[in-house]
């Protein structure tokens, strides 16, 4: 069964869709199909990612310790010890509301830049796959104006702030 996610209402701060348009000032009346957002801070993104990395390591160490307690463990135990933490790390941004556990702590969320849907499994996989290979080089990109790292460009995602009461970037001043 296909997973359907609600379309999010996002605050009018940031980039106007489509991204290929030249930069223009935001107006009060945006086209209905445009999606804009409030970017998550670089600090929140870095700390959220750090928490997810620590959780992945803790999960790995816990599973490794448990596998050592079981005498005569099967070869499948090795796959479980490696596979479960790897699966969390690769797919954590597709958890409910586009929030890994680290992102949830900092009240930020990953959404598709094309329509504002929460991050899908495929997008989460694409955005997190390159981190082990590019590491800090990839993270430097979140300091740019669009605050998108290379994984975000690959997966066509953006990390945004969540507003109060579970809504994403809804402007309460209107």
Automatic annotation (TrEMBL):
**Ranges for region Disordered:** 1-32
Do the record's keywords include Glycoprotein?
A: no
Keywords tagged on the record: Membrane, Transmembrane, Transmembrane helix
Database matches in Pfam families: RDD
Membrane topology recorded in Swiss-Prot or TrEMBL: Multi-pass membrane protein
- Composition bias of kind Polar residues appears in 1-12
Keyword 4Fe-4S attached = no
The family database entries (InterPro entries) matched by this protein are listed as:
RDD (IPR010432)
Q: Where in the cell is it found?
A: Membrane
Query: Domain named RDD: which ranges?
Result: 40-155
PANTHER family for this protein: SLR0254 PROTEIN
Which protein are we looking at? RDD family protein
């Amino acid at each position: 069964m296909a997973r359907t996610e609600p379309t999010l209402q996002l605050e009018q701060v940031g980039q106007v869709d489509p991204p290929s348009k030249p930069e223009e000032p935001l107006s009060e009346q945006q086209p209905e199909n445009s999606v804009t957002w409030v970017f998550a801070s670089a600090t929140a993104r870095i700390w959220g990612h750090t928490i997810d990395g620590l959780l992945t390591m803790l999960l790995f160490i816990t599973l490794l310790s448990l596998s050592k307690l079981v005498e005569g463990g099967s070869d499948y135990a090795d796959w479980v010890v490696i596979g479960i933490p790897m699966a969390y790390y690769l797919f954590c941004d597709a958890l409910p509301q586009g929030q890994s556990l680290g992102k949830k702590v900092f009240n930020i969320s990953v959404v598709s830049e094309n329509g504002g849907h929460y991050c899908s499994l495929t997008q989460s996989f694409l955005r997190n796959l390159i981190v082990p290979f590019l590491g800090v080089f990839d993270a430097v990109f979140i300091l740019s104006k669009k605050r998108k790292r290379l994984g975000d460009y690959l997966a066509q995602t953006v990390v945004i702030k969540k507003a109060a009461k579970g809504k994403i970037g809804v402007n309460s001043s209107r």
